[in-house]
Each structure stands twice: as structure tokens, then as C-alpha cells.
Amino acid sequence: MSSEKPMLYTYCRSSCAFRVRTCLNWKGIDCEYSFVGLLKGEQKEEKYVEVNPYKVVPALKIDGIVLTQSVAIMEYLEETRPEKPLLPKDPHKRALVRSLVQAIAGDIQPVQNLRVLLHIESLGGDKKEWAKHTINVGFEGVEKQLSKSSGKFCVGDEVTLADVCLVPQVFNANRFGVDLSKFPLIQRIANDLSELEAFKKAHPHNQPDCPSEEKK
Amino acid sequence: MSSEKPMLYTYCRSSCAFRVRTCLNWKGIDCEYSFVGLLKGEQKEEKYVEVNPYKVVPALKIDGIVLTQSVAIMEYLEETRPEKPLLPKDPHKRALVRSLVQAIAGDIQPVQNLRVLLHIESLGGDKKEWAKHTINVGFEGVEKQLSKSSGKFCVGDEVTLADVCLVPQVFNANRFGVDLSKFPLIQRIANDLSELEAFKKAHPHNQPDCPSEEKK
């Protein structure tokens, strides 16, 4: 393994980068940040596309290699840095965690990301309403799942990758004005998680690239 | 583990179900199918929502439990049935596979699924053009990634979960009229995979719930 410090390519408000920041903090992996200004289109610049062909954040340079896609990065960190685990040992519980991860990272977030919202807007649609609707539909399923799997956190009483994905999605839900009182388990768990240092430090408002007017 | 035969809740044309069918075939897991008519709205019926709170296919009853979300199901099968592996042993290669899985299952497919397309259409947009555009943007990244990672298949010379996700996405691309000649690696690898028995047997046209007019 390379002795160089890992480098995370990140953007404050990206919920995919928020996930990986949380995971790195949780595992105590010391890391440098390279900021990719999504609103300025820096993700499409040639030098970044060489790092990440998908033109999105995050990407992580670690162990002499470059990793892309937040879920793949988190699974890699789990496999190579198993201390402070974010996946349970039992295969059924692991599947429950991964199912919640995919419900958020695969079903909800991609459908309310910037590119889709801009297209909705270009057709004269209300992008905020669409984002709210998408999150509401997705959270109905997540809430129902949590009623079966949750303890203190999403799956049982330990923090897992499901929690790491939930908090950024709740941040988005708040931005779009979703009424979270309809989802009491999501709300309670996300509130509790937000008090934990790894999540606090990863929050968009605590990033050096977060514009000061956003923090209010 | 339960001795009951596993039960897959499936719909012929769902690319998420297509992935899991392929994975089950590849690993030689004998399985019964329960057909969920998505066009008839059967995924929203109470008895199915009890099985899968996300109101989508697939779901898999296996080992006395119910699993949801295609990627989580495939990871579970890989962990509990490691014979005929679909993930390499090396953590870096595993991350490459999972990155391609997420690029397809997280970035491309959700944005061109039926629910999004119907919304685009309701706003007066061209749903086929949007699907084509989404797949084109996503496949540009996948093709670039394959130029670094592929051998005979997506990552090296062995079939992996990345291949299992690629073939259903290429099926969708063809349905929407994407010009695959722009993506020679995707095209070549998907063609080769389509000759393999596990993929053939999982193809939408070879499902008992596929209407005969679709097969032409």
C-alpha cells in the first residue's frame, strides 16, 4: 500500500461525497480534500475526467489507486480497513443494510440529482415539487423497512452504511422542504446520527468549499 | 438455512430482475418465480408491499428471509454461495466491479425507469429521447472505464457482477434506440455475454411472463 495520504475529490453539497466523508471520518482515515466545483462545471474538465470518467464526485485516491462511485468506495474501505465496521457480520443483516443503501443511493438520490432537476425545469416542470415527490415516495419504503429492521439506528443498534447514506438524503429532504414528521423513524434516527462527530464533520456546512451564505 | 426452494418475485422486462435472474442462473440456484405485473400495478398491491416495501421488483425469498434491492440480493448470494464467484478476490478489482455496478444500477437505470419517463411525458417531454440521452451520458463513462479495466469481460477475463448489470442495461439501450456503435467495448462485451447460458435464460424474451408480441 502507498504511504501517501489519501485524496478525496469532493463537493460540499454532493450527498455522494457526504457519504464518503462520513465513512472516512468514522474510520479515522486521515485524508486530503480536492474541491471540485460542480456548479462551475469543474467535474467536466479533462484533468478531472481522467480521475473520474463518470464526471461526478466523489473519487478517492488511496493505496496508489483511484476509486469511483460512493458505494464502491465505502465497500472498499470496509474491506481494507475493517476496524470500526460499517457492515454487520451476519449475511442477512448485511443484506438489510445494503438494501437500504441501494434504496437511497439507487432509487431516491439519482432521481432528484441536479441533472434530472434541470431537465424537469427545462420542460416547464417544478423541480422542487419533483424532488419532494421522489423523496416522499422513496422514504415511504425506507420508513416501512426501518419499522422492521431498526433499533437505535437503521439496522439494529450499530451505525452502518445505511446510516451513512440516510443522513445526506435527509439533508436533501430538508433542502427541498419534505415534511419529515410523516417519517418518524427516519427523523429520529437521522437526528441521533447528526450528533455523532463523524457525521457532523462531514456535513456540507462544515466543508471549506461551502459558501458562507449557504450556512445560514 | 431453510430447505424451501427460493422464490424470486420478478417481471420479465425489469432490468433489476434481469440482473438477479442472471446471477441465480450463473450460480445454479434452483428457484421458483412469482410474476409481478408491473404494468398492471401489482407491485403496489398490499400483499406484495408486505414482501417488498419499495413496491418494485425483484425480491427474493431465500434461507427463510426476504431480500430486496437487486444489488443487495446479488451481494448476499455472493457471500452465502461463493461457488462460481461474481466478484474477484482482489479488493481493487472488487472496487472496479462495484463501481461499474453502481454506474449502471445507481446512475443510469434509475433515471430512465418507467416512473421518471412517465413524468417527463406528463410534462410534454419526449420520454424516449430522455432515456436515450441518459443512457448515452452514462455509457460514455462506462466505455471510458472499460478501456482501463476490461479484458474479455468488464473487469479482466472473468464474468463479474459488472457484466451481470451491463447486459440488462444494453437491452434497455436497444429498446430506446441508442446507437451502440459509439461504445465498441460495451457492444463487444455485451454480445459475448449474451451467448452465455445464464444470460440467455435470464433474458426478458425467455420469461414465461413475456407477452408473445414483445418477443418479435
UniProtKB/TrEMBL annotation, chains A, B:
Isomerase among keywords: yes
Protein name in UniProt: Maleylacetoacetate isomerase-like protein
Pfam families found in the cross-reference section: GST_C, GST_N_2
Gene3D superfamilies associated with the record: 1.20.1050.10, Glutaredoxin
UniProt keyword Isomerase, yes or no: yes
PANTHER family xref list: MALEYLACETOACETATE ISOMERASE
Domain GST N-terminal as annotated: residue spans: 4-85
GO cellular component annotations of the record: mitochondrion
GO biological process terms, semicolon-separated: glutathione metabolic process; L-phenylalanine catabolic process
Organism listed in the record: Gigaspora margarita
GO molecular function: glutathione transferase activity; maleylacetoacetate isomerase activity
GST C-terminal domain mapped to chain residues: 90-212
Keywords assigned: Isomerase
Family: Belongs to the GST superfamily. Zeta family.
InterPro entries assigned: Glutathione-S-Trfase_C-like, Glutathione-S-Trfase_C_sf, Glutathione_S-Trfase, Glutathione_S-Trfase_N, GST_C, GST_Zeta, GST_Zeta_C, GST_Zeta_N
